[in-house]
Design a protein that fits this description.
- The protein has about 200 residues and is an alpha+beta fold.
- The chain has two domains: about 45 residues, no CATH class; about 120 residues, ACT domain (Alpha-Beta Plaits, 2-Layer Sandwich).
- Helices cover about 25% and strands about 25% of the residues.
- It has five helices and eleven strands; from the N terminus they run ααβββαββαββαββββ.
- The strands form three sheets. It has a four-stranded mixed sheet, covered by helices on one side. A four-stranded antiparallel sheet has the order 6-7-5-8, with helices on one face.
Length: about 200
């Protein structure tokens, strides 16, 4: 909806000189259909603004993202952006990450089952994401995703992120820590803007 709105504003002349870098092939298709000009990170390695959604947002504006299946590309784009603004509704607000949404963990297909016991040793219950026909879901990078549930939520997101990323074959997680500058929350009575406290 946001990409479509940007396309309308470009057509109406409200916005000018906007070029987007998509964080998934799906968003790229929507952008093309909406008339939003696209580029790449190779051509624009530093972006002014990253607009995205999230699956969970905690009080520190740490996020769980990636249930759309594009967590690795989303994190690369966010890391390349000067400002990261997240758009959610109030159902995505949580007191602890992992209490509503599973944590997506992107893994290379080779040896993916070897990660199941490892994630379990960290307190998670991993499940391979699949398509409706039972085949593994494949990311834009050709990887698989494990959806990992943590009973009671994730106690220490930074420690969990560090331990997961040290393991060969795990290429990314849906933990976006210290990434979002602002979160815009749509509510029944209007909009609330949350700003990350200075570190």
């Amino acid at each position: 909806m946001m990409v479509q709105a940007i396309g309308r504003m470009l057509r109406d002349g409200v916005l000018r000189n906007v070029v987007g870098v998509p964080s998934s092939s799906g968003i790229a298709s929507v952008a093309k259909e909406s008339g939003v000009p696209l580029s790449t990170l190779d051509e624009h390695p530093v972006l002014d603004l990253n607009l995205d959604g999230a699956d969970e947002v905690d009080p520190e504006l740490s996020l769980v993202k990636g249930l759309g299946g594009a967590l690795l590309w989303e994190k690369i784009v966010a890391t390349a952006s000067r400002q990261v603004v997240i758009l959610v509704d109030e159902t995505k607000l949580v007191t602890r990450l992992g209490t509503k949404a599973p944590l997506p963990v992107e893994v290379v297909p080779f040896g993916w089952k070897t990660h199941l016991a490892f994630v379990a040793s960290l307190g998670g219950a991993p499940l391979l994401r699949t398509e409706p026909d039972g085949r593994p879901f494949v990311t834009d990078e050709g990887n698989y995703i494990l959806h990992c549930r943590f009973e009671g939520g994730i106690a220490d997101p930074a420690e969990l992120e560090a331990r997961l990323l040290k393991r060969a074959g795990i290429v990314g997680t849906g933990l976006f820590l210290g990434v979002a500058h602002r979160v815009i929350v749509g509510k029944g009575g209007g909009v609330e803007v949350l700003t990350r406290k200075a570190q």
